[in-house]
Amino acid sequence: MSKEIIHTESAPAAIGAYSQAVKAGNTVYLSGQIPLDPTTMQVVEGGFAAETHQVFKNLKAVCEAAGGSLGDIVKLNAYLTDLSNFATFNEIMAQYFAQPYPARAAVGVASLPKGVQVEAEAVMVLGA
C-alpha cells in the first residue's frame, strides 16, 4: 500500500521532522496540532480556550486537505498541560464534533512545544 503525504497552507507548517498528515489507503494519520496561527506561525493569544479552538481549526484544515472532515475522525488524542482545563476542552470539542463522538484519550503532560497548553492528534477514516 502506498502512502500519500498531506500538506495544506491552511494549517501550520511542520516545525520538525514530520508531515501534517499521512494517508495510507482510506486512513489518514494526523500529526499533533498545537495552537499556531498558520499565517504567522505564532501561538494564538487568549488563553486555553483560544488555544483549543485554534487546535481544532488546524485539525479541520488538515482533514479537509486529505479529503475528509472532522466528522471522519475515529480517534483523537489530546494532551493538556493542566488537566483542570479538561472540562473546557470537552465543551469546545463538542462545538466541532457531533455525536457519535470519536474515541479519545486525554493525557496530562508536563510541557508541550512552544509552551502551549494543548495539542491534539487524530486518526481519520475516509468514507467511514
UniProtKB/TrEMBL annotation:
Family: Belongs to the RutC family.
Pfam families: Ribonuc_L-PSP
PANTHER family: 2-IMINOBUTANOATE/2-IMINOPROPANOATE DEAMINASE RIDA (PTHR11803), 2-IMINOBUTANOATE_2-IMINOPROPANOATE DEAMINASE (PTHR11803:SF39)
Superkingdom, natural source: Bacteria
Molecular functions (GO terms): deaminase activity
Protein name: Endoribonuclease L-PSP
Signal peptide annotation: none
Gene Ontology CC entries for this record: cytosol
Species of the source: Gulbenkiania indica
